[in-house]
Amino acid sequence: MYSFAFERPSSVADATKLAANGNARVLAGGQTLLASMKLRLANPEQLVDLGGIAELAGIKREGNAVVIGAMTRHADVAASADVKAAIPALAELAGGIGDRQVRAMGTIGGSVANNDPAACYPAALLALGATVTTTQRKIAADDFFQGMFATALKEGELITSVSFPVAKKAAYMKFKQPASRFALIGVFVAQTDSGVRVAVTGGGNGVFRHAGLEQALAKSFTPQAAAGVKVDASGLSSDLHASAEYRANLVSVMAQRAVAKALG
């Protein structure tokens, strides 16, 4: 690694000041950033570790929503009684991220801010219609994700929590890339108060909603309805792991399985 200054603030206010430095990077678990630094793909002059800010971690129920602090570990989301009771699909998603070491260190805020195109959490945010709360504002999931590793966050803006509305029915199905355990394709389906939402991760430059599946499932929330939707391969990724056509087929299959799972 290159040399860098290490800061561990104890408050959100101090972290915000430090993060405003254009040469600083925020450390919210480090599962991507530290690996990038080891490979010399990232060279920050300053690391701002959020691990010492107690107010950024924790899970609570607020009305018809579950609010998860940005520094809450994946393992804690997976084990949370509140999440299991309100949105079991979200707890299961968290329990399937990476391996045990990743789940013990990775955080929801770090995953969401990084916005890896094959990460699981973005699919949950988009399908459930979540809201990202930052040090400056509240951002709807539909407006937050803006492409590969790109989000609506401004320089120095930190995620403080994510609020997930409780869905009527929801499920997530992931076809894992066996080495990384990222989603080759992951599909999160949810029946919400505003209608059916379907989010796909692992398919392209970032998480996206699938309008065709949403329309079909709004009419009939069944695996058969999902099976009747032709998933277009154009625009999907094609690489050494899978062709675009293979990914398109996986979107259909994972959607069908997710609906079946949501129905119990």
SSE blueprint:
Layout lengths: L4 E3 L4 H8 L4 E4 L5 H6 L7 E4 L9 E4 L2 E5 L4 H6 L1 H6 L1 H8 L4 H6 L2 H7 L6 H8 L2 E4 L3 E3 H4 L14 E7 L3 E8 L6 E10 L2 E7 L6 E2 L1 H9 L3 H5 L16 H20 L1
Parallel strand pairs: 1-3, 2-3
Antiparallel strand pairs: 4-5, 5-8, 6-7, 6-8, 9-10, 10-11, 11-12
Provide structural commentary.
This protein is an alpha+beta fold and 264 residues long. Among the domains are: 1-52, 2-Layer Sandwich (Uridine Diphospho-n-acetylenolpyruvylglucosamine Reductase, domain 2), CATH 3.30.43; 169-263, 2-Layer Sandwich (Enolase-like, domain 1). 35% of the residues lie in helices and 23% in strands. The protein is built from 12 helices and 12 strands. The chain has a 5-stranded antiparallel beta sheet. The chain has a 4-stranded antiparallel beta sheet with strand order 9-10-11-12, sandwiched between helices. The chain has a 3-stranded parallel beta sheet with strand order 1-3-2, with helices on one face. Strand 9 (169-176) and strand 10 (183-192) form a beta hairpin. The longest helix is centred in the C-terminal third of the chain and has 20 residues, at 244-263. The chain is globular. The model has no long low-confidence stretch (mean pLDDT 95).
